[in-house]
Fold these 2 entries.
Entry 1:
Amino acid sequence: QKFAAGELDARLPVSDIPELNRLSVSFNRMAASLEGVEQRRRELVSDLSHELRTPLTVVRGYLEELADGELEPSQEVYQRMVRETKRLERLVNDLQELSKAEAGYLPINLQPINLRPLLESLVEKFADQILEDGPDLRLESPVGLPLVLADIDRTEQILVNLIGNAVRYTPTGAITIRVWFESGKLWIAVSDTGIGIASSDLPHVFERFFRGDRSRTRYSGGTGIGLAISRCLVELQGGQIFVESQLGKGSTFQFFLPLA
């Protein structure tokens, strides 16, 4: 009755009667799961409100000043508003993707694939975007890779997220994409010599909207959802993803996919 009335922390006590005790255990497991869902729902609403507020406030501010004649229309002003609306669009798209992934509704097309061509093309693509005084981007991979059972498009999405983050937070030094295989798994690690992540932040890096350094990351192009999506995509393909990092020394994100 307490649970039905909204007290989601209510639990059934242990019973001396085996049948009632099994019922209590099952009920308490269900109650804990529902309580967790409700907690995540509240957090999502709070996080989403916070993330949407900033670009909306910026756009509204410009529009009000333009309407009142306090700001002269210019290409720069319109470009700023376009940037903010694009950020809103990315946020909404990422949220939709994350929602589908967490609910298990995201279509995954698993098939045997060779990741070597994908890795080479991504290294070439990102190398073209790095400035001359930027980090050195290199691939360390055996030429003959075994096939993995994966979705090529979703795997590319994971790698774009990880390499993109490494490029964003590594002004100088090196970014290394290392590939190896063992015990039925193909491992891919993206290591950088960038700003790193504080040890207190490491347990939270795969949580939606988490930012270790909000002032640095809010306007760097990310939405704070990329790593959460990456974790879901890795797990949907039967793998796992991990992170190691030291503040000021760099980070390594590595994940595995099952061999075909």
Note: The longest helix spans residues 18-68.
Entry 2:
Amino acid sequence: MTTELTMLAYATGLLIVLVLIQATVGVKSKGLVPLANNRDDVGPATGFHARMLRVVDNHREGLTMFAPLVLIAAVANLNNSYTALGGQ
């Protein structure tokens, strides 16, 4: 596996970890039942919970730009020191 695909796998794994942390913080701040329901009466997130929501959103946005580029490079068999550096 190329360096670029390895970095994509790491970035995806990081997103999963961030979502789990965000969900755990959300359950601790709002409770399990309100978050498991339709969330109409939950209210806005505050403090660390709000920060984790922004972290997950930012990482997801970056991943949506990074993943297609890595996959295009992999399909086109373009891997050199510059693409590896870009992936890192």
Note: The helical segments are 3-30, 32-36, 47-75, 81-87.
